[in-house]
Design a protein that fits this description.
Strands 1, 2, 10, 11, 12, 13, 14, 20 and 21 form a 9-stranded mixed β-sheet that branches. The chain has a 7-stranded mixed β-sheet with strand order 8-7-16-17-18-15-19. Helix content is 23%, strand content 31%. It binds flavin-adenine dinucleotide (FAD). The site of flavin-adenine dinucleotide has 40 residues, from helix 1, strand 11, helix 4 and helix 9.
Length: 355
């Protein structure tokens, strides 16, 4: 027995959820199939008491991101400026720390009040829960009857649809979904060459009761050549109930595998002490998320992904099988590939194909 729906969206990250909301407003019979036991995909927050810390995306740039700005106001969400007052540090080596007064690479960056997960939380008030099938990993898609084979809660399930929207990174599609008939080689090669943005990174957030760096006129922003943390920023919530420093680990995923988590944290705390002094030892909580270990974001190919934002191709085909199989997800966005804005851009485009 298979369940039939007019539109089936694979992936309940920002792109899939936003797409579902738009189609639901057009009174489409739409469902979302999501492999994880949660929605949001790369948008993930860690909670500490009443505050939420972004373990995935944190920054938005309203002056460059019209769709995201529209969405935040539609969803009644507020944004606030990334804290960047004071001095930025550059650690050349443990003995050579340069100071840059009043400089910041994030003077134009904003964050969503309450963390990026507020976007997902707000979308979940628009898309009815019964339309989201969690723990449902799509394994195969057949052109005949547009049939989907998935594993839901460990059991084989089947769906059929009039249209399917794949709202997930192309490399995950390539690695985990079998198509019948198979996709042409030029398409699979194109998918292979589209890196999943930030998938190889590891983020560590350090939570404090006091903003000792601010008190010492430091912005919290650091670039380091020595590491293990290569970039550090102030990640305190706007409410200032607690304070936080967030960081990206400079070691790549292969190097991280050679060092256990406790060792990585100890080395990171030693670095914070070098940069910010002894008060950094009074940490209330530490949250770590290594995205390279996340099977629903990262593939083997992404372990050697570029550290800099790549140029996403403008011309990859985004619909197949007489426009019945359509791609969305930030990695296929023409203009804003990789970013939250791209997740919405690609969903808007998928809906246009659909119409
Ligand atoms: C550490 C980090 C920092 C970032 N920082 C920023 C930032 O500051 N600003 C910014 O704009 N962007 C940032 N990004 C990128 C941003 O997170 C993405 O652009 C955005 O979240 C992508 O949304 P999406 O819906 O396209 O994809 P995803 O969020 O990846 O959603 C895809 C969904 O598909 C699901 N899925 C996968 N395989 C299957 C399957 N077989 N069957 C069913 N479901 C499946 C996944 O579980 C997931 O929920 C960052 C990302 C990371 C990891």
């Amino acid at each position: 027995m298979s369940e039939h729906h007019s539109v089936i969206i694979v992936g309940a990250g920002l792109s899939g959820l936003y797409c579902a909301w738009q189609l639901q407003q057009q009174l489409q019979d739409v469902i979302l199939l999501e492999a994880r036991d949660r929605t949001g995909g790369r948008i993930l927050s860690a909670d500490y008491k009443n505050s939420h810390y972004d373990m995935g995306p944190a920054w938005v740039w309203p002056q460059l991101q019209p769709r995201l700005s529209r969405l935040t106001s539609q969803l009644d969400l507020q944004i606030f400026k990334q804290y960047s007052s004071g001095t930025m540090l550059y650690e050349k080596s443990p003995d050579e720390i340069e100071r840059y007064d009043g400089q910041s690479s994030h003077s134009q960056s904003y964050r969503v009040k309450g963390g990026s997960y507020q976007l997902i939380k707000a979308l979940l008030t628009k898309v009815s829960q019964s339309r989201i099938h969690l723990n449902t990993q799509v394994k195969e898609i057949h052109k005949d009857n547009l049939e989907i084979h998935a594993i839901r809660d460990g059991k084989a399930v089947h769906y059929t649809a009039d249209k399917i929207i794949l709202a997930l990174p192309p490399r995950l599609i390539l690695e985990n979904i079998i198509f019948n008939p198979t996709m042409p080689e030029d398409i699979t090669n194109a998918w292979k060459n589209i890196p999943t943005w930030m998938s190889g990174h590891c983020k560590i957030v350090f939570i404090y009761d006091k903003p000792f760096w601010r008190d010492n006129n430091l912005s919290g922003e650091v670039f380091s050549h020595y590491g293990p943390l290569s970039e550090i920023y102030d990640a305190s919530p706007e409410s200032e109930e607690y304070y936080a420093l967030t960081s990206f680990v400079g070691l790549n995923s292969h190097q991280r595998k050679q060092i256990d988590e406790k060792n990585l944290i100890d080395l990171s705390l030693a670095q914070l002490q070098r940069l910010f002094g002894d008060e950094s030892k009074n940490v209330s909580d530490i949250q770590i998320k290594d995205w390279s270990l996340d099977e629903y974001t990262t593939t083997e190919l992404d372990l050697t992904s570029p550290m800099q934002h790549p140029d996403y191709p403008e011309d990859i085909p985004k619909h197949f099988w007489d426009k019945k199989l359509i791609l969305a997800g930030t990695e296929v966005a023409r203009e804003h590939g990789g970013y939250l804005e791209g997740a919405i851009e690609s969903a808007d485009e998928a809906i246009t194909v659909y119409e």
